[in-house]
Structures are given as structure tokens and as C-alpha cells.
């Protein structure tokens, strides 16, 4: 294979990973927008999505489109409950207390599911609902899994776009993320909008969880940690709080990760992502699409 | 000596505690296993004290404290093994050196990241912690003896009661003297309101860096003592869960209280290790389910830390 | 002598010019007031002078020294102190510690002295504390040294912030809306306090204020701002008569 074909091939693989990161990053960025909180448990919602899908496919043999719908619902409920139980009582508390709570929620979800009585701490194989097939497109190959990921991601992003820019809930959410106090004065129910944001973010993470497990069919209770952190980095890279920034950031992080694995060594891929994070935080903390904010 | 002037009551109490502990150890009142846990508790106290300076006093939230603990541990493990050190006296300079190494790394990493605040600082320190973890997992590619993901084996066992106990006493006095000086005052100012601190003339960037470096130094010393207590190291000993361990101790102990941190360390290690003895293995797995729940409950009940008073916003 | 000289200062936020080509100077020893409607750019001006914002354009001189790029903490050492519109005390620290923070931020003793508890440490700490108590006394807060700042009443907190700023022994003090939320009696007391500060510590004072009677009572000169621009500058009498000022304040009482 010539070098150009190889690069293109890795680019496609990177987009596959990046699409999943983009779906997770959206949840981080939206929650940060309305609550100014890094929701550490968001990566675990992603994991939860993978597990729900596993049960639906392996135990009940449910058709794939239903798997998506039920998983999204389950994740939405989980996201809603986490916010109501753990975060809402801390609305006026210092930022760090909220952050510690989020770390607590994350640990709880991981270790609760890792109990042998509930599940297992080990890796288990995720049953793909179909066999992988590659389509040879002269310079590179694309698999049906990749096609599925691109289509589903595209549909999700389109629906999200409609939801955020064409409905009252979406407008209210953007208003809250812009200026909470003013939004409240204009009669927007802040609590409702925060719940709404968690529900939307969690559903997207659920979709991400299914797609990720189909692409890399090994699931584990700790599988959400690294993709979660990387997606957050993607959100920061794109400009935290900015919807399209999260998507672009996710794609960039995915491509970087695959390229580092392909051209350097897979041991360094996590390291490189964190170096990107340091770079962004130091040189442009507001991210690619963010505006510079000075506030006293 | 003036150094001890304000601490003599504390010294008398500590020496008595030491004598009691020494007697317990010498006459085998407690099993070697429990003895080891006691030493471990002191090491955890020393390391947590470092985090308390960074977070409890100065308000700089770090999720990467275990990384500095790990740097100290691996540095000491490597040095004592290569130089085949096995006595307490030659080990002391190694300890100090490990503290300096961790402190230097903390200083260098602190220059860029301490400009960040709260949650962004948390992510940056978490990122650094992950980088260190990745490095340790692949450390055998740089030097075979570091062991990589198989773990570092055959570290000389040097750490004993005298060493940990008197290092802790020494560190407590230094920390106390720092806290009750202009530096401690500046740290607390920064925690309360960084902007106000800079406008009364405090060089906040320097002061944050100083607190961070000092805290990381203590973690490095703690890590070195740990490495030469258990004679085996594994990268997983220094991951985010360990950082959260230290964080929980600082929160339980009341942020910004030296003795609170010491008590909390002893209680926490006693609690965790006690569970290990009392509970069967299956139930033991429950602890990382219960601990997060306690943590969340604690945050909701007392968002400013257990021993600090509720403040008006 | 010009103690502060501001030349063609400019600062925008997202396309909005908060401070637009403003020049003015403050004479040593005077009380200089900046007035104007909300959002006129007054506090932005203070933040520019104290280095919390960096100007897009223009220069600031403090006694012949260019301080446009000097870091905030250095300005405190050079002799510029300030208070904040919304008060920024160290809430969990005591009254004494709040005042000590600025006194000890000067070169007093080093790290070695602190750790080893040298004689230098003891002497400096004692001297700073005595000085702090004098400032606390001057602002009528004696007896409350060990109270946390957040436990003080609103008026006491305002005074403590003045005490903290003054204890840096500044040559120029910037006071941002000291009269906010005060009743007429408290305003009258505040006017006396400001006059006393000026007399006793011979410090130049720049003040942002909305309470017109306070401004007219204490100021030597007044600068009026609106929409980031300087409308006029003059003595209280001149300002009172100016048509543009009355327009800018349309609907607001002027006496």
C-alpha cells in the first residue's frame, strides 16, 4: 500500500474514533455550559450505554434500531437521576465540592458495576449485531461498522442541531449557558433546563457507548474513564461550552490518537492527548472557537 | 533552639507516643503486619499533609498528588537498589533527594498549570497524573529494572519506625512554622480571594508555586518511605484512586488543619486496612462502592469540609 | 506634581469600547472623582490602572514611571492601593490578618527566617502587628481584631477594606464606590473618614462614586464618563453647571 493510501486509511479510522469522542464531548460541553461543572461521571454514562446495549443484544436479541432507542432512554434516565440526586443539592456550594461529588458519582458507577454480584470487573466480549465487512474503495477500505458510525453520528448531530436551534428548550438552554441570572429573570426554569441538558448529553453518550462497543467489541466497567477524559479534552480543545467546538475537537482528538498509534507507538497515544491539553490550556484556554474572556 | 520554641508541648507528646509505639513494636504486642500498617499510616499522613498545604491552605485543587508520591517512590527504589543502600543513615540523604526530585517536577509542572483555576487545574493535574502513570507502565523500555507494568521488585527494606516517625515530626514542625508565618497567611489569602491577594501586593503566582512545590516535596518523601517499606512497587499504586485517597483524607481532616490531617490519615488507613482484616474478600470489594457514597453525602452535608464551619456565601 | 498620568487609554470587550481614548491626570494630594452612569467604564478604568486588565492602547504613568505593563502586586509595592466595588475581603481570615496581609507582603523576613523562627521573624511580625492595630483603631474596628471578616457588618467590612488598602501605605488610593448601599448618615461619616485619611496619611485619592452629595463634598476635581468616553473634567462647580453632564444624568438627581 502506498503511503498516501495508508494516511487516508488512518484518517478514516481516526474519524471513526473521533465521531464517538464528539458524541461524548457534546455532553461535557453542554453541561459545562449550564452548570460550569466538569461532569466526571459523563464517561461512565458512556460505559453504561455500552452495558445496556450488551444486555439488550446478548440476552434479549433485540433488533439494532430498538437497541439504540432503549439505550438512549436508559442513559437519559441515569443522567437525569445523577443530576437530581448528586448535583442539585450542591447548586450553591463551592465549585470544588461539586467536582468532588462528580468524581464520587463516577467511582460509584464503576465500582458498583464491577461487583461480582452485579457484574464483573473483567473484560467481556460485546456481541456485534452483524459481521464486519470491508468495502474496497481503491485507495482505502471502509468497513460497514465505520459507515454505521458515520451515519448514526450524522443523524444524532442533525437531531441535536434541530433540538438546540429550533426548539424552545434548546433556545432556553443556550440562554442559560450564556447568562444564568438573566435567563432566570426572563422566566426560564433553570432546574428544568439543567435536567434537559443532562438528558440530552446522556443520550448522546449512550449512542457513543453503543457505537464504540461495535467498533471495539470489548467492554469493561472502566472503559468510560479514558474516552471520557479524552472527550473532555476534545471539548476544551474546541472551546468549552461551544457545541460545534465539541464536534470538531472530538474529530481532531480521534485523528491525533489514531495517527500517533499508527506512526509512533500506541503506548504514547494517551500521552500525546494530554500534551494537546496542556498546549491548549496554556496557549489558548478558550479553545479553537472560544472567545477570550476577561472577567474580574 | 528557636525552631522548636513554639512546639515543645507537641514534641513532648510525640516523644511519648513514640515510646509507647516502640514498646508495642519491641515486645510484639502487635503483629508485624499491624506494625507495617502503622508505618504506612504515618507515611500517608506525611503525604496528605503535602496535599493539605496545596489544597487545604492554598486552595489549589490537585488530582495528581499520587503522581508526585510515585515519582518519589520510584526514584528511591531505583537509587537504593542501584547504590545498594540498606542502612537508615545513608538512606536519609536519598529521602531528601527524592523530596527534591518530586519538588522540582512539581515546580516545573506548576509554572504553567497553576495559572489555571479550580476544575481546569483539576483536569490538568489529572492529566499529569495519567502521563506519569503511562510513563511508569512503560518504564521498562527506559530502564529494565524499573519493571514497567510488571512492577518494581527487590527494593531494599529500610523504612522503620524511627525514620517515619521523626520525619513526620520534623515535617509537622516545618509546616507549622510556615503556616504561622507570612507565607501561610499569603496562602490562605490566595485561597479566599486570589484577586484581592494580588492587589494587596502578594505575588500570587510565586506563592502558589511555593505551596505546590512544598506539597510535592512532602509527597516525594512519603513515596520514598513507602517504596522502602513494602519493597515492591506497581504503577497502579499511583493512579487516580490513590490521589482521591489523599484528597478524602484532607477533606475529612478539615481543609487547612495540620493535626486534622494527621488524625484523618490514621483513621482512614485504620479503616481501610481494618476492613481488609475483618471482611471477607467479596465484601471487601464493596468499599469503593461505599466510599464514593460517603464522599457524596459528605459534600452535600458539609460542602466546605468536615471540620470547617459553614460559611455564608 | 502629576502622581498619575493616563494617556489615550483604550480597552474593548468583544467589540464594545469600555474605555475609549481617555486621557487625564491626577495631581498629588488631591481628591479626584470619576462619575458617570452604570456601564460608563469607570471600574474598567480602575482595573486598567491596577493592572487587572491590560489596555489595548495607551500608556499609564505613575510618578514618571511607565506602569502600563507592571503586574498588579508590584503596583501595591510602588504605592497604589485600591478597594473593590463589591468588596473583596479575605472572608475567612480575621480582621487582623486582613490588615497584616498587606503589611507583610512587603520585604520583611525570608523563608529561612520563617522556618527557623529567627529573631528577624519575631521582630518583623511584632512590628507588623503593632502597625496593623493602629490602622484597625483608626477605622474604629478595635476590639474586633479576631473576628472573621465575613462576620462583620456591611459598614464595618467597608471600613476594613479601606484599612487594608491604606495599610499598604500607598501614595495613591483608588476607592471604588465606597458609598454603595449606605444611608445618608453613613455617607456623611464616610466623607469625614475620607477627609481624615487624606489629612493624616497625606495620600492622593481617586474615587468612583454615584452618591452626588458625597462626590461634591469631597472632590477637588471630577471627571465625567459615559459610554467609555470622557465627557468633561473640572471642579465640582463646573461639573454641576455642564449641560452634557446633566444630559448624561438625565433623570438622575443632582444637588
Q: How many structural domains are formed by the residues of chain B?
A: 2
**So how many helices of chain B?**
14
Structural class of chain B: mainly alpha
Number of structurally distinct domains of chain A: 1
Average pLDDT taken over every residue of chain A: 89
Total count of strands of chain B: 2
**Could you tell me the radius of gyration of chain A in angstroms?**
19 Å
- The structural class of chain A is mainly alpha
From the N-terminal CA to the C-terminal CA of chain B, the straight-line distance is 43 Å
Describe the structure.
The complex is a heterotrimer of chains A (296), B (313) and C (255). Chain A has helices at 3-35, 42-58, 64-87, 95-114, 144-166, 168-178, 180-185, 190-215, 225-238, 243-263, 269-283, and strands at residues 124-125, 134-137, 140-143, 218-219. Chain A has 296 residues and is mainly alpha-helical. Chain A has one domain (3-283). In chain A, the strands form two sheets. A two-stranded antiparallel ribbon of chain A has the order 1-4. In chain A, β2 (134-137) and β3 form a beta hairpin. In chain A, α1 (3-35) crosses α9 (225-238) and α2 packs across α8 (190-215). The model of chain A has no long low-confidence stretch (mean pLDDT 89). The model of chain B is unreliable at 309-313 (pLDDT under 50). Chain B folds into two domains: 1-30; 42-242, no CATH class. The longest helix of chain B is centred in the C-terminal third of the chain and has 27 residues, at 204-230. In chain B, strands 1-2 form a two-stranded antiparallel sheet. With 313 residues, chain B is mainly alpha-helical. Chain B is built from 14 helices and two strands; from the N terminus they run ααααααβααααβαααα. The radius of gyration of chain B is 19 Å and the shape is globular. The N and C termini of chain B lie far apart (43 Å). The two termini of chain C are 31 Å apart. The mean pLDDT of chain C is 91. In chain C, the strands form two sheets. Chain C has a six-stranded mixed β-sheet with strand order 6-7-8-3-9-10, with helices on both faces. In chain C, strands 2-1-4-5 form a four-stranded antiparallel β-sheet, covered by helices on one side. Chain C has helices at residues 42-49, 72-78, 95-104, 111-116, 119-138, 154-166, 184-201, 212-218, 236-241, 243-248; strands spanning 2-13, 16-27, 31-35, 57-62, 65-66, 80-82, 172-176, 204-208, 221-226, 229-234. In chain C, α3 crosses α5 and α3 (95-104) runs parallel beside α6. Chains in contact: A-B, A-C, B-C.
